[in-house]
């Protein structure tokens, strides 16, 4: 029996529109992007959940009303006489935990009659800010890009304190709002493509007994697409951590410097429509463009990695698509090397407005064998988002045709492993993401609908 099924649907609009969109008086706020957090969370001993249940999962949404909202998914607590299972929709609990705001941004209006006046967020990215083996260390860093080029970053604790139901009710209002740590505006930005570089040991200063204790750790880098076809790299001012994160909120939120432009590559090209960093070779970056071309860049000298300040060269230039590339994702480790992680991200998976999927081996030295697979007409309309399922050879796509499809990189000729439909099959699905534990997926659409799926094989 397949483990793929829809677990939960929730419309985030205060007064959702009818499925056919006929009632124009009802408020409809599209969701443009969604991502699961890469941070694992522990479960307190007093929580009574099903033995097979997984720890709570966090995800965020980018909304057209100009707000980023943070949610938590958890398996429903066991009642004394109940036998809920994790694949039963009634066993799933979804709750909004925070609204992420800018420095001077007012909270969402409480009145359902209020008008949307802000410029929406188009894209978000999330990393776990830690380099090391301690799975309990490292904060969650969120970056969001607004359509007018405004960039905001938030630092959120990886494992927030768990509250009892009574404590949650008492503290819900005061905990709902979280303000940004850093924000800046990039006037030349496209307003649609952004990525944050995952931290790695190459971002840290050399270890030496003679090193000064005051030596500054390199800060996290944000890559932003510009209208002239270039990528701008900004020093976010948020330091990369290689130690246990301090408990103090003031210490956690401390930023070492103001954001600043430190490098740019690829100027003079066609407008960039998507960006993704490589999951293990963190200075390698792939970009998709409006004309359907794809470029992969990396530092010229890997022997002396310089992060975003290094001189870059173009490794690959792919031309198989003929319409805008809206989404790129790298394969998970088991796709190419048995899951041991040593060849993590060998395959680049691309989705375009032409509805086709192409899969490239970016480590291939032969230009004639770089493209390893293709899926013509994978969707009947634009492919809007792609993601890999961690520790798996599978990946997910969604599109303007209202479909969410699961594929296997080793079985692409067999068609989709599973296909989900939106309610009524009429909504454009703009975002899809898989959880770090490979057990759940989420999607968001232009009708404000969040859907949660099980993806256990």
From TrEMBL:
Residues 7-18 have a biased composition (Basic and acidic residues). Gene3D superfamilies: YVTN repeat-like/Quinoprotein amine dehydrogenase. The keyword Cytoplasm does not apply. Keywords: Repeat, WD repeat. Pfam families: WD40. GO terms for cellular component: Cdc73/Paf1 complex. Residues 1-24, 190-215 are annotated as: Disordered. WD repeats lie at residues 376-408. Residues 198-212 have a biased composition (Low complexity). InterPro entries: SKI8, WD40/YVTN_repeat-like_dom_sf, WD40_repeat_dom_sf, WD40_rpt. This is Anaphase-promoting complex subunit 4 WD40 domain-containing protein. It comes from Ditylum brightwellii.
